Each structure stands twice: as structure tokens, then as C-alpha cells.
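Project outcomes to date are best conveyed with an example. Our students and postdoctoral researchers have been running inverse folding experiments weekly, and each run begins with a structure described purely in C-alpha cells. The record below, which covers 544 residues, was selected by the lab manager from last quarter's runs and is presented without edits.
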């Protein structure tokens, strides 16, 4: 079975840090022992040996020589020390764990009390406390239990040495990045029945995996609300890694796994679905991916309210899931991914968030290019229709730039389809030419103007590659345009001389830019209209 990406290297780094706990204790013990030994020997040989009543006992003999008075006064103090250590440990740990659970997810408390190192150290503190109390109460003053007292001194010393390294371990254990990685690993272990989940029932494993994804989503949403981009990105990335690691191996799972069990069916994300939709997910064998992407959608919606730049991150991670589905040749998982991309675009339109729509469409187009490269012509054409649809919706809503962006992305898909000789090219070109409709207002006129420029840009691309028939198709679609409008479109395209857009964008390009070879084809394309007005109209001054 393929090794998943969550296991290393970050998880290995976490394990290496755990190994430092005994090393830190050893270092502290060595420093304390060396300090005590140096001054004990200094006292014995330089300052105190000549005044000792029994110098013949030797340095070690004098060290372990116990008298009843000393023991009687020291033992109660030892028990108080260890009780204080236990109280400090419990207080600090409980406060820190509760704060972390409140800020990120309640799963932290459960993980903390299941961790073997935490249980072992807290158990050691409790045992040391009990033993010290018993020894102090059992001492009668007539008999000195030397071995028991030495053992008590040892465990009290060990408790004191453990305190600071243990606090460091707790803070590292509660580090959000490590918590996120552990939850991600637990989800995969539950899904594939690894480790402690090897003998669990399928329905139990489904519930554990589903709950784990909910906790990752909680971390992401809480981090977004608090504008903590790093933790939000880590949580979304971990959820993506879960699906990316899951997809290549899901075929090894039993058929029962893909039937939604009773524990998961009562989940709020499924209980609201129509029975037919649940049945369809089971037939697609994609409920697990649907559940993860549902949490992506929750994080996306929250990001639009509090931290818009995170919405772009969610879209990028969603594209990675779609690409992983392509690598696994899992068409059903890819279809679920496309549905959520459509949902993202719809949300940006409803919120009239132009920048978010601009970024989402960019990721959607990149996924479409990958789908096309893998030979899924029907899905590529389907995505093209979605882009056309949302471009038209944006046009109706008075969002011209979104319409122009959708048109540009469709033109890019047409270019890629032409380069790759994809079977969907001609249908994709027809879809592209359907984006624009007759304008009724000045805002719509502006939107359609951007679409026409994208179409002219694509026509010059075809002409540069000798595909005159495709350029003629675009020309035929533009025959009803007025000479004045055609001339102004041409002038604007000629005026753009900088490929880089003058603002910071993720695409980093100017939609209207034509390279030199494409500009050379502008005259040929516009000559086909046979209108003197177009040829004689002066070009605008070059603009950046």
C-alpha cells in the first residue's frame, strides 16, 4: 500500500521532538548532579572534612549516612514538594489544553488524554505523590527504611526534572500544525483500518473519519474568523492531503465502506440531503470526497466574510483534489469537485465579489486545461458551458468584469484545445461565441465589449497558426457589429503594449494584450468586414 503524504516529513519531525524529552531530562539531571558533586566534594575535602565527626566514613558513606532526626524532618517536606509539582502540572496543563480546545477544536482535549506520553508522565507524577505521602506517614522514628527513602528521593528528583521538559512537550504537542497533522493521519487510519482501527467496524471507522474532517474544518473556520491565515491554510491543506492520499487507495476498500452507515447518515451534512442524492453519492462511491469538499465550501463561505484571500486558497486546494481525481482516473470524484467549483462561482456572484470570482475562474480554467490534457473532452466541454453560463449570469447581474473574465478563460481553453487538437475544440468555440448577448444598458455594453475583444484576440491566434476557418467563424459571429464599434475595439487592442497588468494579480497578465505576431493579424481580420471606416480609423496612442 502506498505511503500517504501526511505521515512524513512533518510527522517524523514531531516524533524526533518527542525523543528530546528524555534527553532534556538527562541534561537537567546531569547539570544538577554535577553541581551537587562539585560542591559536596569541595565541602568534604577542602572545607568540612577536618571537622567531621566520622571522617573515616568516606565521601560516599557520609552521603548515604541517614539519621532519624534528618529523616523525620525531611520526609514531610518531600511529600509537600511532590504534591506541589503535581498541582502545578495539572493546573498549567488543564489551562493550556482548554485554551487550545476552545480556540481550535474540542478534539485537542481528546487527543491529549489519549497520548501515551502525556498519560505516562501524569501517571508518574501521581505515583510519586502517593509514594512520598505513604513514606512520610509510615516512618515511625525507630526504623530507617533506607531503600524506600532512596527510591522516594529518586522519584521526587525525577518529578522535578520532568516538570520543565514536560511543559515544553505539552506546548509542542498542542502546536496547531502538529494537531492538524495528527487529525489528518487519524482520518486516514480510520478510513483504511490501520493501527488501532484495524478491527473496528466499517460504520465506526466512517464515523471517526467523518468526525475528524469536521474537526479540521472547525480549525480552518475558527482560524479564518480570527484572521489566522497560516493555521487556516494548514487545516485546509491537511484536509486536501487526506483526499489526495485517499483517492489512489480507495479502490482497495471494501464495498461496505461506500455505503453511508447510520452513524454518518445522521450527520448534519447528510441528513439534509434528499434520499435520492444520498443514494447517488453511494453509487458514485464518493461520499467521503463529498464530505471533505462540503467542509471546503464552509471554509470558502466563511472566507468571503472575514478573509477573502483565503477563498482563493480554498479554490487552489479544490483544484488539487480535482487533479488527484484525474490521476486516480476517478471520474465520479472529479464530477463532485466540479460541482463545488460551480458552487464557489455562484457564491461569489451572489456576494458580488468580483475579485473572488476572478480568482476562482482562474483555478477553474486551470483544472479544465488539465481535464482536457487527460482526454476528457466531454468534461472539458461541460466546464466550458459552465463558464459561459456564469458569464451570462454575471452579465445579467451587472458584473461586466466577471463576464469578461469568463470570456477570456473560454478563449484560453479554445487555444489549448486547438494546440492539442482536442476533439472538443469546435464545440468549445461555439460555446465561447455564445457568451455575449445583445446589450440593453451601458453596463452591459461594456461587458460585451470585453467579450468581443476576447473573441478578436482568439481570431488573431487562429490566423497566426493558419487556422483561417476558425477565425472566419468568429468573423461571422461579429458581422452585425457597427463599423464604429469594431474600429474602437481594434484601436484599443493595438494600444496595449504591456503584457503585464499594471496591478498585482494572480494571473499577472493583461486580457487585451496581443503579441507582435497577433497584432499583425488584426488588419487581416478586420479587412474581412470590408468597411473603410475600420481601416481608416487611426489607432489610439500606445498605453501600458
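After processing, the design step wrote out the following sequence:
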Amino acid at each position: 500500500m502506498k505511503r500517504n503524504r501526511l505521515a512524513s516529513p512533518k510527522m517524523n519531525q514531531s516524533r524526533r521532538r518527542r525523543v528530546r524529552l528524555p534527553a532534556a531530562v538527562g541534561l537537567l539531571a546531569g547539570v544538577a548532579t554535577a553541581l551537587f558533586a562539585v560542591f559536596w566534594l569541595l565541602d568534604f575535602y577542602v572545607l568540612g572534612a577536618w571537622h567531621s565527626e566520622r571522617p573515616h566514613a568516606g565521601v560516599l558513606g557520609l552521603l548515604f549516612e541517614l539519621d532519624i532526626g534528618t529523616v523525620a524532618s525531611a520526609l514531610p517536606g518531600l511529600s509537600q514538594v511532590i504534591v506541589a509539582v503535581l498541582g502545578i502540572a495539572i493546573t498549567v496543563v488543564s489551562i493550556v489544553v482548554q485554551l487550545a480546545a476552545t480556540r481550535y477544536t474540542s478534539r485537542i482535549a481528546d487527543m491529549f488524554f489519549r497520548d501515551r506520553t502525556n498519560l505516562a508522565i501524569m501517571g508518574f507524577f501521581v505515583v510519586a505523590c502517593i509514594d512520598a505521602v505513604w513514606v512520610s506517614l509510615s516512618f515511625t522514628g525507630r526504623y530507617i527504611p533506607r531503600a524506600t527513602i532512596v527510591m522516594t528521593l529518586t522519584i521526587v528528583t525525577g518529578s522535578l526534572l520532568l516538570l520543565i521538559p514536560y511543559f515544553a512537550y505539552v506546548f509542542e504537542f498542542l502546536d496547531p500544525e502538529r494537531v492538524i497533522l495528527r487529525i489528518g493521519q487519524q482520518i486516514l487510519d480510520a478510513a483504511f483500518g490501520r493501527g488501532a482501527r484495524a478491527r473496528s467496524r466499517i460504520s465506526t471507522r466512517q464515523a471517526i473519519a467523518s468526525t475528524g474532517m469536521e474537526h479540521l474544518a472547525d480549525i480552518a473556520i475558527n482560524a479564518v474568523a480570527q484572521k489566522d491565515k497560516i493555521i487556516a491554510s494548514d487545516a485546509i491543506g491537511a484536509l486536501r492531503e487526506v483526499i489526495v492520499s485517499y483517492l489512489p487507495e480507495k479502490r482497495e476498500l471494501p464495498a461496505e465502506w461506500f455505503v453511508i452507515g447510520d452513524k454518518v447518515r445522521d450527520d448534519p451534512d447528510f441528513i439534509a440531503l434528499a434520499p435520492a442524492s444520498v443514494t447517488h453519492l453511494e453509487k458514485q462511491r464518493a461520499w467521503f470526497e463529498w464530505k471533505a469538499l462540503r467542509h471546503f465550501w464552509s471554509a470558502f463561505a466563511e472566507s468571503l466574510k472575514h478573509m477573502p484571500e483565503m477563498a482563493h486558497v480554498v479554490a487552489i486546494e479544490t483544484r488539487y483534489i480535482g487533479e488527484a481525481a484525474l490521476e486516480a482516473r476517478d471520474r465520479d470524484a472529479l464530477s463532485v469537485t466540479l460541482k463545488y467549483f460551480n458552487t464557489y462561482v455562484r457564491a461569489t456572484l451572489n456576494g458580488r465579489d468580483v475579485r473572488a470570482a476572478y480568482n476562482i475562474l482562474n483555478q477553474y480554467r486551470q483544472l479544465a486545461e488539465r481535464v482536457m490534457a487527460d482526454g476528457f473532452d466531454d468534461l472539458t466541454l461541460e466546464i466550458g458551458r459552465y463558464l459561459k453560463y456564469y458569464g451570462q449570469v454575471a452579465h445579467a447581474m451587472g458584473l461586466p468584469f466577471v463576464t469578461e473574465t469568463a470570456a477570456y478563460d473560454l478563449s484560453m481553453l479554445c487555444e489549448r484545445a486547438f494546440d492539442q487538437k482536442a476533439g472538443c475544440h469546435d464545440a468549445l468555440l461555439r460555446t465561447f461565441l455564445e457568451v455575449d448577448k445583445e446589450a440593453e444598458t451601458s453596463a452591459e455594453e461594456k461587458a460585451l465589449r470585453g467579450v468581443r475583444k476576447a473573441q478578436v484576440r482568439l481570431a488573431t491566434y487562429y490566423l497566426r497558426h493558419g487556422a483561417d476557418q476558425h477565425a472566419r467563424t468568429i468573423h461571422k459571429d461579429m458581422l452585425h457589429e457597427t463599423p464604429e464599434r469594431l474600429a474602437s475595439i481594434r484601436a484599443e487592442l493595438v494600444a496595449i503594449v504591456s503584457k503585464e497588468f499594471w496591478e498585482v494579480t494572480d494571473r499577472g497578465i493583461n486580457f487585451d494584450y496581443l503579441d507582435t505576431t497577433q497584432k499583425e493579424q488584426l488588419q487581416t481580420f478586420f479587412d474581412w468586414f470590408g468597411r473603410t471606416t475600420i481601416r481608416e480609423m487611426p489607432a489610439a496612442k500606445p498605453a501600458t
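The chain is about 75% helix and 0% strand. The longest helix spans residues 10-48. The training component of this project remains on track.
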